[in-house]
Amino acid sequence: MLLKYRSDYQKIAMGLLSLLPTFKDWDRLQRELSWYQGGDDRTLYLWKDENNDFAGALGTEVHDQFLIVRLVTLMPDKPVTASTWQMLDQLTTAVPNKRLMGTLTTAKIIAKWEYHHGQNHSERTTADSGQ
């Protein structure tokens, strides 16, 4: 289940984000959390697994018809591919009218997820939820 970040999840979010090499620095991590809180076009989602434990995070930013997936992180004990695809499936349900796109860091993940769903960029419309 995806939950939008809120301040009472700060320690959980910081723990999940600190799994990414980019956010090993405390100040950088704090700036990233502040950035997500600084605009309506940005959302940090925390993901709970089937055991209702916080197990991952997705950072997104809205641009026109697209939802840019800026970051994806999971607890080390989670199966990467299956868990990532579950998070992306849930994200498309939460934001159905936006096409998922990736950054240089996340583009491969999004492409594999789209391929798994039997879709590619030329076949999908911007209104397609990826389901």
**Helix and strand succession?**
EHHEEEHEH
Q: What would you call the structural class?
A: alpha+beta
How many individual helices? 4
The number of distinct β-strands equals 5
Please give the structural blueprint.
Blueprint: E1 2-4, H1 10-17, H2 26-37, E2 42-48, E3 54-63, E4 66-74, H3 80-94, E5 99-102, H4 107-116
Parallel strand pairs: 4-5
Antiparallel strand pairs: 1-2, 2-3, 3-4
Model description:
Helices cover 34% and strands 25% of the residues. The protein is an alpha+beta fold. The protein has a 5-stranded mixed sheet with strand order 1-2-3-4-5, sandwiched between helices. The protein is globular. Residues 120-131 have low confidence and may be disordered.
Question: Concise description?
Answer:
Helix content is 34%, strand content 25%. It contains four helices and five strands. The protein has a five-stranded mixed sheet, with helices on both faces.
